[in-house]
Amino acid sequence: MPVPTPDYRLYLVLDPKLCAQTGIVQTALAAAQAGAGIIQLRAPYWKKRELYECAIELKTALAPFKIPLIIDDHVDVAVASGADGVHIGQQDLPATCARAMLGPDKLVGLSINTIEQMKNVDPTIVDYVGVGPIFSTATKPDAAAPIGFDGLAQLMKICPVPAVAIGGLKANHVKEIFKAGADGVAVISAICGQKDPNVAAQTLFKECPDTRLTR
Amino acid sequence: MPVPTPDYRLYLVLDPKLCAQTGIVQTALAAAQAGAGIIQLRAPYWKKRELYECAIELKTALAPFKIPLIIDDHVDVAVASGADGVHIGQQDLPATCARAMLGPDKLVGLSINTIEQMKNVDPTIVDYVGVGPIFSTATKPDAAAPIGFDGLAQLMKICPVPAVAIGGLKANHVKEIFKAGADGVAVISAICGQKDPNVAAQTLFKECPDTRLTR
Prior knowledge:
The structure is a homodimer.
Chain A: E1 10-14, H1 24-33, E2 38-41, H2 48-62, E3 69-72, H3 75-81, E4 85-88, H4 95-102, E5 107-112, H5 115-119, E6 128-131, H6 148-156, E7 163-166, H7 174-179, E8 184-187, H8 197-206
Parallel strand pairs in A: 1-2, 1-8, 2-3, 3-4, 4-5, 5-6, 6-7, 7-8
Helix pairs in contact in A: 1-2, 1-8, 2-3
């Protein structure tokens, strides 16, 4: 099955621990119903079997929405579970290795924090970048230094692929993110663990541009 | 390049943290020179880039010895680095997924702790098993319950593939391990972090049968 072209405007990163109250699949569905166009599963504290089984469950649940499911870091889990792609950081496997294992049709996303890293993005290998962190955040304590809206705008000037901004973003930041040139906002705790993830996602999505951007 | 047929008698599991004094590659070479016939790289505390780069370095260093290099858990790192196989636990990706990604020629090893798990070993998928832990060990605090020599002997009766025993093993245990029917001993701290890893490996290897066992 071909990977759907992602609508990057609202990108949900699912953190299973934060979703304990609502449930992982339920949180994903609530966000998808509210307009999230791409969903990543990120559970660095899990063994692979649990990640693999959860990915399969999510893939099935999300099928009617035709939005891609991305696996954080683990290319092998992405391949084994039939997910639509992988998101890798600068300390994960090289993007070329991920692309070789996934084939030409799946999505490869890459985290970017600096101008140097952005200059090295090869648009024939990488489908999109996650740019940040915009603000510091408790969800990812080992993240790089925050870049703010100005840093984002600088990076977007030389960005060769679609980009989502990430890191401590809430609904009141969304307009500024798009103004800086990004194609989407990625959130974890602004949806995961919220009392009503569907309402939280709706509130975020309302701040996004009406139509997806194209490059 | 085809994967060499392993001599399972002395199986080194490299723990980079424990090898700090001697060095990782130096420890691997010291063990290979002393008779280790298969080497696994296991660093659950590392990001994948570091694991990948270390695997490539080890693969190059070990090439003259024609002994296989196995990667713990991460099938993607094994594929990307050109290692000779992967070792998976019961909570890692299913063996069938590992086999599908690695192709028919690479090695797939599986950790076994119970009769139930041993009964489920498919010899068309799994090349060898790691049986244990024989004793409890500080190197793997999340390991299953120790099975002792008797438990090993019970499991070996129904083992369909070559087996290495693992878990707190030292030179004085080696004869008992082979008597119980195993094809090899796997060690971490009996070599890694020892003042002279070459002497430590020689001491272990001297206790092994003179020729490799075949099934």
